[in-house]
């Protein structure tokens, strides 16, 4: 095998829906992005690669032609085929190229290390089971709405959200999350970060700071940093956010941004004592608590705790929900429950921002809820995820033995596999995750979910979405791929 063939991970999965020639293209792009294949490197000959992969020469040729068309490869006649010598920097990902551990990994690099793209690659955290979504029912509802289009639905939608959907959300939150709110408090948005934007525009002042969970949801973190908010990392322990530490670090922060039901990513629940302490602090400091309740519908042990908002007697909690987990993220629909004292401000703002999410999709979701499909779907997904969670955790235990600690989570759609330190000290989870991504998995190292620099105390591990792990064979295959990435 040539050095170039070594650099390529050419594992082809014949059960994948994606055709073999596309898988070959992906592998080449990943190897180039990771720096394993460099501009000017010669790539394997068509026939040799076809034999190695046990596939037709034409299949490899199709892949090479696409890569040439896209500018990744250059054919130089009898001399062979080479990685293009003029590749733009943007196709070469530095975080994957240099996987070596450094305690002071700069933030931009850690952000890149956590970037798992947007597609449905295996193990992507937070992606619901796409195979189990009732697509027929959904398309029937969308089609019916599309066919019966009336003039009213052609105009600008209500910027605060489609009225009947706001009503359905308010009823649902009262029944299932203990959140008592009126439809006027519910503002429909296009995803959690759009909700945060509304909150910041409505309530933040220049130079404001916010407590942010450490580790915490990196997409929200990146958005808030971009928006100019000063983030104060507050540690998480077994009881969730350490409120005392928050008060010591910054007693006058304007916001605390938290995931109380199912901490993202560690999965712990904010204890009742901490909830009371957090609310008490917010009341005394005149601050706002942003509750990100993204996947609390899925709970596998005991009853779900009601939302933090249900305890909010002083009107200091801004509740954020999303349809990304309970339906699907391509929908881009989410919502904010405004504190009563901020309703007028939010209303004024939504009018000045954009005109709100498309009417058609909001109406179809309202129908989906009204006709009972939503409740049925959630019930089915709870059972399905409980099963997939168990199967995947078992496969990981088998593949990693005592190298890692794997506890099936009590809720949600992802689990955290914690790497045990080896003889050389803490394991470099960023390098392992980069290798796993090169192999086609959408995983991120746990230490990239931290805002602060990596230290010996930073937990090392992997955040793994299990909702799309369809059966034991698939679980075993993915666990083996992770193990190979771990072994290096
Ligand atoms: C912690 C957390 N909050 C919120 C969301 C929802 O984001 P969105 O509504 O933009 O899809 C996610 C999705 O992955 C998440 O992991």
From TrEMBL:
The organism's superkingdom is given as: Bacteria
UniProtKB keywords: DNA-binding, Pyridoxal phosphate, Transcription, Transcription regulation
Q: Which Gene Ontology molecular-function terms are recorded?
A: DNA binding; DNA-binding transcription factor activity; pyridoxal phosphate binding
Keyword check for Secreted? no
Keyword hit for Cell inner membrane: no
- Sorted alphabetically, which CDD domains does this protein's record hold? AAT_like, WHTH_GntR
| Boundaries of every HTH gntR-type domain copy | 18-86
Gene3D superfamilies named among the record's database cross-references: Type I PLP-dependent aspartate aminotransferase-like (Major domain), Winged helix-like DNA-binding domain superfamily/Winged helix DNA-binding domain
Under the heading Pfam families, the entry gives:
Aminotran_1_2 (PF00155), GntR (PF00392)
Entry-linked SUPFAM superfamilies: PLP-dependent transferases (SSF53383), Winged helix' DNA-binding domain (SSF46785)
Tell me the PANTHER family matching this sequence: HTH-TYPE TRANSCRIPTIONAL REGULATORY PROTEIN GABR (PTHR46577)
Q: Which family does it belong to?
A: In the C-terminal section; belongs to the class-I pyridoxal-phosphate-dependent aminotransferase family.
Q: What is this protein called?
A: GntR family transcriptional regulator
User: Which organism does this record belong to?
Assistant: Caballeronia ptereochthonis
């Amino acid at each position: 095998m040539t050095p170039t063939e070594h650099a390529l991970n050419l594992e082809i999965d014949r059960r994948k829906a994606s055709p073999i020639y596309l898988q070959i293209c992906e592998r080449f792009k990943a190897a180039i992005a990771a720096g394993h294949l460099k501009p000017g490197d010669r790539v394997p000959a068509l026939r040799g690669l076809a034999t190695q992969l046990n596939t037709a020469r034409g299949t490899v040729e199709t892949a090479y032609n696409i890569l040439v068309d896209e500018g990744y490869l250059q054919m130089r006649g009898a001399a062979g085929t080479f990685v293009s010598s003029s590749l733009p920097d943007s196709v070469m990902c530095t975080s994957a190229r240099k996987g070596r551990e450094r305690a002071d990994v700069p933030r931009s690099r850690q952000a890149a290390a956590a970037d798992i793209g947007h597609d449905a690659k295996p193990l992507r955290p937070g992606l619901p089971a796409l195979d189990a979504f009732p697509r027929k029912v959904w398309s029937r509802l969308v089609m019916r709405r599309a066919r019966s289009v009336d003039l009213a639905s052609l105009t600008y939608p209500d910027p605060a959200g489609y009225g009947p959907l706001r009503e359905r959300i308010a009823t649902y939150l009262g029944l299932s999350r203990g959140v008592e709110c009126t439809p006027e408090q519910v503002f429909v948005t296009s995803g959690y970060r759009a909700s945060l934007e509304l909150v910041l525009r409505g309530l933040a002042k220049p130079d404001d700071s916010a407590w942010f969970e450490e580790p915490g949801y990196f997409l929200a973190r990146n958005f808030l940093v971009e928006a100019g908010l000063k983030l104060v990392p507050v540690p998480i322990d077994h009881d969730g956010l350490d409120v005392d530490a928050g008060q010591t670090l910054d007693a006058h922060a304007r916001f605390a941004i938290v995931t109380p039901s199912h901490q993202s990513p560690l999965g712990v629940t904010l204890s009742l004592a901490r909830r009371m302490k957090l609310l008490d602090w917010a009341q005394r400091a005149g601050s706002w608590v942003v509750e990100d309740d993204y996947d609390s519908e899925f709970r596998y042990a005991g009853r779900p705790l009601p939302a933090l908002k249900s305890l909010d007697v002083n009107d200091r909690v801004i509740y954020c929900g999303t349809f990304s987990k309970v339906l699907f993220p391509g929908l881009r629909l989410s919502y904010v429950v405004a504190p009563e004292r901020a309703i007028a401000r939010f209303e004024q703002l939504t009018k000045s921002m954009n005109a709100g999410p498309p009417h058609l999709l909001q109406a179809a979701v309202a129908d989906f809820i009204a006709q009972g499909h939503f409740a049925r779907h959630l019930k089915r997904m709870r059972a399905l995820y409980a099963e997939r969670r168990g199967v995947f955790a078992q496969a990981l235990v088998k593949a990693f033995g005592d190298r890692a600690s794997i506890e099936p989570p009590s809720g949600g759609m992802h689990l955290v596999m914690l790497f045990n330190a080896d003889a050389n000290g803490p394991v470099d989870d960023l390098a392992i995750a980069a290798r796993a991504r090169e192999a086609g998995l959408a995983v991120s190292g746990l230490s990239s979910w931290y805002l602060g620099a990596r230290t010996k105390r930073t937990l090392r591990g992997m955040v793994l979405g299990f909702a799309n792990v369809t059966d034991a064979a698939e679980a075993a295959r993915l666990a083996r791929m992770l193990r190979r990435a771990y072994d290096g």
